[in-house]
Write a structure and sequence with these properties.
The chain is α/β, with parallel strands linked by helices and 472 residues long. It folds into three domains: 70 residues, no CATH class; 186 residues, Rossmann fold (3-Layer(aba) Sandwich); 173 residues, no CATH class.
Length: 472
């Protein structure tokens, strides 16, 4: 059935006008345009596609394409928004040296009026003067909103909806696309409950659950000061993560602004590249059509060949994947249709049973990777593990990671792998997630190995005894 929604019509027109798989970075977020001017370079094929959209969609208030490479698009029936959301999380009781703000000339938003803004706030612009955290955060918020168009959440400047502050900010740390923490030396006020952490550090603990969107900027030497045990553990987890990947030290405000700008640029570049690649990968291509024409068994063969090739590109060598300082055995499986279809699901039905049979000599805890041509749901992964109640399932844009901690069984599920490009995109995201949780994955694999040795030990001894005596 053809998608006749506004977004569906526009996407269809753009797909027909340009092969996205050939030009994966040529993507315009036209469906999310709000009633405002969107000024971007536009090639002729987009102009023609947008014109056809105007003819089809009566909700368009107006559409003009001025000379050159700019266009104005106004929609009245689409939701306003889709801005990236950034959370600023810090304690405002510190002040820090200002530093040489002249170094920000080429990068900071409206730098030419920065001196005037600081002076109007009653601050000196001398390099050895000091600036309070409230002013620092105000300037950062202005920069992120003005230069990048981000929607910036700052608890102190955001009206409350009536919820408790600690609950509201924890929710925001999960909701935001990027969480920026700034730390001087103060730890903030204590909430009268059982949690030993202050609200700010609770936000950081929540953000640390998805470390790729978390950046901490700490004043030099502040993280080495002795702290309460609970806070000490959180700080250690932050500073030790991938050898300090998510935190940066700064010596003054100018240094902080420069480091933050560099981190945001890196984050935006990765986000745009990843989004363009994923969008292109999700479009059906000739490989998709070829797989669709094959019967299940032949489709599994083709999918398995593609998955092995893609896995090798992602670092899986001879069934082994390097995770941090350990080597994790993996096994690849493919399902030719939706996981809900028994005839399709049977191609991965007994992958966990096979670990305890066949007389394997290594008996190493294996991480299974299942690529499904069709969809997979949370409930289906739990049933597949064979222990519905005990299963723990993590959901992500690339699919699901599921495990039964007691037995050490682990499996990745990559749904809707309609071609090798989708496989590559999803497997790349999954392996990045595995790298973040390498310690947990390795511990479960070790547990699985120990259980398999206990289970297979008596059976192996009996088999060897029969072989020596020649008895059946």
């Amino acid at each position: 059935m053809t998608d006749q929604s506004p977004c569906g019509v526009i996407r269809a027109e753009l797909r027909s006008a340009q092969p996205f798989t050939k030009y994966p970075t040529t993507f315009l977020a036209i469906p999310w345009a709000k009633p405002a001017i969107r000024t971007v370079p536009v090639p002729e094929w987009v102009k023609r596609a947008v014109y056809r959209c105007q003819q089809q969609l009566r909700f368009a208030r107006g559409l003009t394409i001025p000379s050159g490479s700019l266009f104005l698009l106004q929609f009245s029936g689409l939701e306003v928004g889709m801005h990236a959301r950034v959370m600023l999380s810090s304690v405002t009781k510190d002040d820090i040296p200002l530093g040489d703000i002249r170094s920000l000339k080429s990068t900071w938003y409206e730098f030419e009026t920065l001196t005037e803004r600081l002076q109007s706030a009653g601050l000196s612009v001398e390099a050895d003067s000091r600036i309070d955290f409230t002013s620092v955060r105000t300037e950062i918020q202005r920069h992120l909103k003005g230069k990048y168009g981000f929607e910036v959440y700052n608890f102190q400047n955001t009206p409350s909806d009536g919820g408790s502050p600690e609950r509201v900010t924890i929710l925001e740390s999960h909701r935001s696309h990027l969480v920026i923490g700034i730390f001087g030396s103060k730890t903030g006020w204590k909430v009268p409950d059982q949690d030993p952490l202050t609200p700010t550090f609770r936000e950081w603990r929540a953000a640390l659950e998805t470390p790729l969107k978390f950046k901490i900027f700490a004043f030099k030497g502040s993280l080495t000061v002795r702290k309460p045990p609970a806070l000490e553990g959180l700080v250690r987890e932050i500073t030790d993560y991938k050898n300090g990947m998510i935190y940066v030290e700064f010596g003054d405000a100018a240094d902080l602004f420069a480091s933050l700008e560099s981190a945001v640029q890196d984050y935006v570049n990765k986000a745009v590249a990843g989004y363009a690649r994923d969008y292109a990968a999700k479009q059906p291509n000739s490989e998709t059509e070829q797989w669709l024409l094959l019967p299940y068994r032949a489709r599994v063969v083709e999918m398995r060949s593609a998955l092995e090739r893609v896995a090798q590109w992602q670092g899986v060598k001879q069934g082994m994947l390097a995770l941090d300082s350990s080597i994790q055995p993996v096994e690849l499986h493919c399902v030719p249709d939706n996981f809900s279809i028994p005839e399709s699901r049977k191609f991965a039905a007994y992958i966990f049973d096979d670990e305890t049979s066949g007389g394997k000599s290594d008996l190493t805890g294996t991480l299974h990777i299942v690529a499904s041509f069709g969809g997979v749901t949370d409930l289906q992964t739990r049933r597949h593990l064979g222990n519905f109640e005990a299963a723990e399932v993590y959901s992500a844009p690339w699919g699901f990671y599921a495990t039964v901690p007691a037995s050490g069984i682990q499996c990745l599920y990559l749904p809707r792998c309609i071609n090798s490009l989708v496989m590559q995109s999803k497997l790349s995201g999954a392996i990045s997630w595995l790298a973040e949780h390498a310690q947990q994955i390795t511990a479960l694999a070790t547990r699985r190995s120990q259980i398999l040795k206990l289970v297979s030990g008596p059976a192996d001894s009996a088999r060897i005894s029969k072989a020596r005596t020649g008895r059946p």
